[in-house]
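Researcher: Next entry: DUF1905 domain-containing protein (Ornithinimicrobium avium).
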Amino acid sequence: MADLEFTGEVVEWRGPAPFHFLVTPPAESEWLQEIMRDVTYGWGMIPVTGRIGGTEFATSLWPRKGSFWLPVKDSVRAAEKIELGDVVTVGLSIRG
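Model: Predicted structure:
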């Protein structure tokens, strides 16, 4: 069972290479900030196992401007046919 579930729009953050993310909504961000000290491995990163549709993946939530950004790997997007701008639901289990 997931520790957290939310629905969001797939957004792009352009750095040296473009990455696709889901951004945690305010209530979920607040909860994550409350537990962050107990589960982070450094720099506020929170290790999670995610599930979108039938695809499970391991990654970490990135803290950014009061929210957390969940990277959505290319392999996950391909498997679930997810495009930039799509609205998807993700279940997250905190690894620790």
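Model: Note for the record: The domain at 4-11+23-94 is CATH 2.40.30.100 (Elongation Factor Tu (Ef-tu); domain 3).
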